[in-house]
User: What shape does this take?
Amino acid sequence: MGFIDELKAKAKADKKMIVLPESMDKRTFEAAEKILKEGIANIAIIGTKEEIEANGAGYDLTGAVIIDPMTDPNKQKYIDKFVELRAKKGVTPEIAKEQMEKDYMYYACLMCKCGDADGVVSGACHSTGNTIRPALQLLKTKPGISSVSGFFLMEVPDCDMGENGLFVFADCAVNTDFDSPKLAEIAVLSAESFKSFVGAEPKVAMLSYSTKGSAKHDDVTKVSEAVKIVQETRPDICVDGELQLDAALVASVGELKAPGSPVAGHANTLVFPSLEAGNIGYKLVQRLAKANAYGPVLQGLAMPVNDLSRGCYADDIVGVVAMTAVQAQQQG
Ligand code: ACO
Assistant: This one.
C-alpha cells in the first residue's frame, strides 16, 4: 500500500469533519465527491446557493454539509467568537461579518474554533499567505509552540535513501525569518511530524552549506546553535548538523565528512536553513526526481489547517484532506 493509501485508511477509521471553503472552484466539488464516495472524511463546503449551483452542478455531494454564509443559523455564534478573539485588534461585529462573508477562510477557521469542524483545507485558488493568515490569527499555535511552520512529505520514487524514499522537508512554506531557537523548534516539530505520518524514527539533518565547521559564517553558526538547542531540550530526538545535503543523505559522504554522526548518510527529516532553501529544495526534488510532494502541511497550529498549491488537481485535495483528517485524529 502506498503512503497516501495508508493515510486514507487511517482517516477512514475515525472520520473527521473537514471544511472546504473554496466553493468558487470546481476542483473543490470534484474532490468532495471523491472524499465522500471513499468515506475518507465528512465534508462541509462553504458557499452561497449561487456558488454551489454554478460550480457544484453535476457532482454527487450526497452527505456533504453545505454552509451558506449568508443564511447559516450558526453565523451569529461565529461573529461573536471572532469579536471575542480579535476585539483588541479592532474587530467589531460589523467587521467580523464583512470579513467572514468576503473571505470564507475566516468562516472555516471559526467553525473549527467553535467545535463545528475539525480542520480546513484551502488554497486551490488563494495564495499561501491568504490561506494561512486567518488560521494564525484565529486558531493560533499549540500550547508551548511559538511558530507555525510548513513541511512537505516527499515520496521519492525508486529511492533507497530516507525511509525507503519518504522524507519530511521543512520549513518550505511559512517562516521568512529564522533565528536559532525558531530553527530548533522547526526541527522538533518536523521530527514529530515524520514520526506521526511515516511511523519510523526520525533522523533529523540540520542543513547548511557547511559540514561540522568546514565553513565559518553567521549563517552556519545559526544552524549549529539550533542543533545544540535541540540536543539539550529534546535529547530523545536523533539530530545532527550542521550538515551539507550530500553528507546528510549519502552514507559514504557522511562517513567522510561527519564520521560518527548518528544522522549523516541516513537522514530522513531535512530541516533547511531558510525559506528560500526549503521552498526551492522541495520543488527541485519534486520536478527533477518526479517525487510526490504532499503539502505544505502546517505544523504547530492548535487545529489542522492545510494549504494547497494553486496548480493542484482534485486528487491532491483528496490527499491533503486525508492528511488533515489524520492530524485532527492526533489532536484528539
Ligand atoms: N506562527 C505563528 N503565528 C504567526 C506566524 C507563524 N509563523 N507568522 C505570523 N503569525 C501571526 C502573527 O503573530 C499575527 O498574529 P496577531 O494578528 O494575533 O498579532 C498574525 O499571524 C499575522 O501576522 P503578520 O506578521 O501580520 O502576518 P503576515 O500576513 O505579514 O505574515 C504569513 C504571515 C502569511 C505566514 C507570512 O509569513 C508569509 O506570507 N509567509 C510566506 C508564505 C509564502 O509565500 N510561502 C511560500 C509559498 S508556499 C509554496 O510554494 C507551496
Remarks:
- Residues 89, 128-129, 132-133, 136-137, 141, 147-148, 173-176, 279, 296, 309 surround acetyl coenzyme *A (CB under 6 Å).
- The radius of gyration is 21 Å.
